[in-house]
Amino acid sequence: MLSVIPEINWLAVIASTLVFAVLGGVYFTAVVGTPYRVALGNEDRELPRPGALFIVGPLVSSLLVVTTSAVLLRALDIDSVGDGVVFALVIAIGYLVAQTLTIAINPNFPRPLLYTLINAPYFIVCTVIACVILTAWQ
What we know:
138 residues; 74% helix
C-alpha cells in the first residue's frame, strides 16, 4: 500500500491541508464560536490566549488526515471526483465524526452530542473538499 506514496501529488496534499486550516479557523471562531464554548462547558470562563500548539497541532493533524486519505485514494485506485466524494463521506462520517463522538463521551465533555454535532459539519465539508482536490489534481 505504501508503494503509492510516490504517486501522490504533494501540492494537492498541501492545498487540502490548508483548506482544513483556513476553514477550521473561520468555522470554529466566526461561525460556531459561542456554541462550541457551550459544548465544552466554557461559556462562563475566560480562556487563556492560544499558543503555538493551537495552530500547529490542528495543522499537523490535518496534514496526517489528508496524507492518509491521499494514500488510500491512490491505493484504492479512486480517480474520479464522484468516487472521491463517496470515499470522503465514508472517511468523514465513519472515522472522523464517529471518533469525535467517542472522544467526547467522557466526563470532561459536558455536552458530547452537541460537541459532535458542531464538529461533524467541519469534518465532513473539509474531507469532501480535500478528497475532491486530491482526486481532481492527480
